[in-house]
Amino acid sequence: MADAKQLVTDLFNRNGITIPEHRMQLFDRFLEEEQNLAILHQLSKNQEQLMANWKTEDRIAEIVQQPIRIPNATVGKPYAAPFDFEQYGWNDLIAFRIEGLEALGLTYSAENNQLTGVPTQSGDLKFSIHFKVEGQPEEAPFHQKDIPLIINPDPKGLWKNLASDKNDPYWKEDEVTLFSPLGDRHLLVSSKRGRSHANVGSFREDDFAYKELPNGWNVVVVSDGAGSAKLSRKGSALVCAGVVNYFLDPASVESMIEFDDLLQQHASQTGDDTQKNLNRFVYNNLGKAAFQVHKQLESFAKAQEVTLKDLSSTLIFTLFKKYDVGYALLSFGVGDCPIAVLSKDVTEVTLMNWIDVGEFGAVPDLSPCPRFSRMKSSLPVSGLS
């Protein structure tokens, strides 16, 4: 009765009604009347219900705003992470459902309190839990809480493989691989468009060429087009074809016969003269090939109204011939492409050129000097048979 009396007193006071001392007995009789007791009972129940409703709403807001962090996932990799209601303090949930996991390639196991699966998409994603808490009526709507989940992309999936434009006048196959006899040896060569080029649909920039020459020599040429040069794919093709054509020219075929005579002189005597003659021969013949290719690039650039730099590419080539005592190997290089000879028993590697390096080591021009000083000759190698 005291609580009811205080409740009504407070209610009256808020409405400007004050019960004077000489009206207290009347006030007590007023509170004891049956109809007023029923009203007081209802007021008390309404007050309790109001408090309960507020606690429920406050709890729902607390859960919705509660930060939940779960481990990051990666596309294509098996994923398992704890998702424990008890750990989050959600023991008062009376009903729930989880939505959005299937679209991510994941599922929830209430038995193991885990999220498992293999993620299928990447990004700052989310799934949601729809829930009811204790105190809510059965017919009450579910409330939604979004759970953030970061799924990292598969690094391999970041790279696309876009086809190059076949309508481009200087288009070439994105990948070429072949195995072919060359002299008494076999040549295995593969040229494949780089990943960064495939990712944007640009072209394979490098090229190669080879030929068995009519004088017993064989030539192999490789050129790596500079990625920063817009027509380097054409430049690399031109220089490879140009070197082969140079050594197929009758005058070049004839000039290579001189090497046989020089080699015999070197084998029959020692001294600086024969070595100098050999070096001079390599300097002149291989150097002329590079010089001719350089002039061809200039002519092409002028005809197509582009700059010589647009055709920038590295160049390495080697000439080899088998003699009774072994192989003679001649090489030329411009740029950051190495040439090496591996011995038959795989115990020794001989570098056949000096590599150009620097701020733009992969974008040299093919000017004849002083690049000729980077040529290197090798006398017959008896270890190769």
UniProtKB/TrEMBL annotation:
<dbReference type="Pfam" id="PF13672">
    <property type="entry name" value="PP2C_2"/>
</dbReference>
<protein>
    <submittedName>
        <fullName>Protein phosphatase 2C domain-containing protein</fullName>
    </submittedName>
</protein>
<dbReference type="InterPro" id="IPR013783">
    <property type="entry name" value="Ig-like_fold"/>
</dbReference>
<dbReference type="InterPro" id="IPR001932">
    <property type="entry name" value="PPM-type_phosphatase-like_dom"/>
</dbReference>
<feature type="domain" description="PPM-type phosphatase">
    <location>
        <begin position="193"/>
        <end position="360"/>
    </location>
</feature>
<dbReference type="InterPro" id="IPR036457">
    <property type="entry name" value="PPM-type-like_dom_sf"/>
</dbReference>
<keyword id="KW-0614">Plasmid</keyword>
